[in-house]
Amino acid sequence: MRNAGGKERPRVELRRGISTDAFWSIRFGEVWERDRFLDWFKWQHHRLDEFAAYLNTNDPTSLRSLLLREMIETEQLARRNKLTTSGRRPAQPSQPV
User: Hey, which of 32, 36, 40, 76 would disulfide with 71, CB 3.0 to 4.6 Å?
Assistant: First the structure.
């Protein structure tokens, strides 16, 4: 996984090993949107092979929709159980006091 950006629109890219070529990427309109996605996605590393296999039978847009839907469902569940905050980045780790 690579957190790409720079002057381009913020994005996240998935790569295998030391490859410089991404096998999938997702772009965001704002940096905070990318960071929100990364707050959730960093816990999905164990599923990278699953996502790559999904792309063998589905298009990249379908994977994007699937991941964003799962992220939102996870955030909603965490809010219902009072495990997270509201705001732009609900899954952001708490800052020490």
Answer: 40
Main-chain dihedrals φ then ψ at residue 21, nearest 5 degrees:
-95, 130
Q: Provide the token pair at 29.
A: 């309109």
> What amino acid is encoded at 22 in this protein?
A
In this structure, what token pair is assigned to residue 18?
A: 């030391």
Concatenated DSSP letters for 23-64?
EEEEE-SSHHHHHHHHHHHGGGGGGHHHHHHHHHHS-HHHHH
Contact 67/32 with Cβ under 8 angstroms?
Answer: no
CA distance linking residue 58 with residue 61, whole number of Å: 8
pLDDT tens track, the chain, 97 positions: 555 555 678 999 998 888 889 999 999 999 999 999 999 999 998 999 999 999 999 999 999 999 999 999 988 888 888 777 666 666 665 533 3
